């Protein structure tokens, strides 16, 4: 063995060009020279990197323990690729892998809860977990937005905002909602005359929702150009709502574009708050949500805070836009699709409309009229059960959260209550994938006996503040559409597939052909 090496010793015969040269004179690239500072640096860096990668795996496995989920996480990025292009099939696989399961994205440890018990436990444990929304939300909503408040401060702030959704306030909004819905539906019909082929309603329904929201919230305190501009730019915000996004707001990134869009919207909303205060100070009657809020603040009987700056009001209104635009659009688009695919249900809705409106299809909708439409409301509820706009809400643990006897979610993890399995639980909703509004009309049905399963609007201290308004708006638009127009669904191979853009949408954008009902 020794002789073998000896044959390759530096003193062995060398090609003539190097023979006789000393070993030290042979050029060795610095990165191979163990004595060079570069090599030392490279070795150290390599060792540190390897240690970090090993540590990353060890930490992941230590946090995950026995939960279902990958045994190893992809270094640094984890399941980032999956979170960029989420699919229903992927989520279902995850939800069905266990009532609790683990993943990691960019070293954020995530526990997904898919059962009703665990999802509700997370939503109702404010001392252990609080909403964190998606990663980009803080940058888009701004860190001092009220939606990031927690605990007692959140409860108190929300108490003031609840007054914007009372029955009296909702009655003020229905007139605006009705007028805007009719304006848009009429435009849809006009557009269908010039081109009668089926069209995706993805963007047209979003525009309807956006103008409705802006006019309900801001009335005429912003010009028409503002509603158009906000509507157009808002798509950038929707696109930035991925579960985990590229963290830096560098030019060209989705978050950068979303922040730019928010700045435009925020400037208009601040102007609306200012104009509302001026109008109300001049003795105008409340015509929108901001007016109602300003009136309330000036009421001598009011016991809450009175110092809401224009900026703070704009932040609140923006939070409502942020929370409602995608969810309402998803709910409405599936509402149209479900009715087109179930003419029997649409016929029952029309019968109910005829009864309440006494044949007058031009009669503006009121809260009282909506209260006389139980079948329509049951349909809206059922449509969102079958295709819940929001399938999950990210929360984060603020301290170790002993969610079961044998598993504690570590502090600073994401915990994601998911709603889909609760809403499709066959023991509560027999034939769970079928659209059956009647299940909500029988007071003794298992659906009505288990309200805890209806998680479409979440649960606990952060349950959707706009639930009644949202239900009412969807019902109002569909009621008006049902009496004013017919629509046919062009069914494509993608119609029943779901795409996730923050909320759920039919993958083909829902292609409908509209014609007037009473031509
Ligand atoms: C179909 C429409 C809607 C759906 C499906 C929906 C669903 C949800 C869900 C699942 C949550 C999270 C609840 C939780 O963490 O437990 C939520 C929160 C919220 N929603 Fe909605 N929402 C809708 C419409 C609206 C509308 C129209 C508004 C306002 C006008 C609104 C305002 C909010 C706000 C402000 C929160 C946060 C509440 C808090 O943290 O206290 N949402 N919504």
UniProtKB/TrEMBL annotation:
SUPFAM superfamilies, alphabetized: Cytochrome P450
Cofactor(s) required, per the database record: heme
Ligand binding (heme): 464
Name the record gives this protein: Cytochrome P450
Entry's Gene Ontology BP terms: sterol metabolic process
Membrane-spanning segments: 38-55, 95-114
GO molecular function: heme binding; iron ion binding; monooxygenase activity; oxidoreductase activity, acting on paired donors, with incorporation or reduction of molecular oxygen
Lineage: Eukaryota, Fungi, Dikarya, Basidiomycota, Agaricomycotina
Keywords assigned: Heme, Iron, Membrane, Metal-binding, Monooxygenase, Oxidoreductase, Transmembrane, Transmembrane helix
Species of provenance: Piloderma croceum (strain F 1598)
Keyword Transmembrane carried by entry: yes
One Pfam family it belongs to: p450
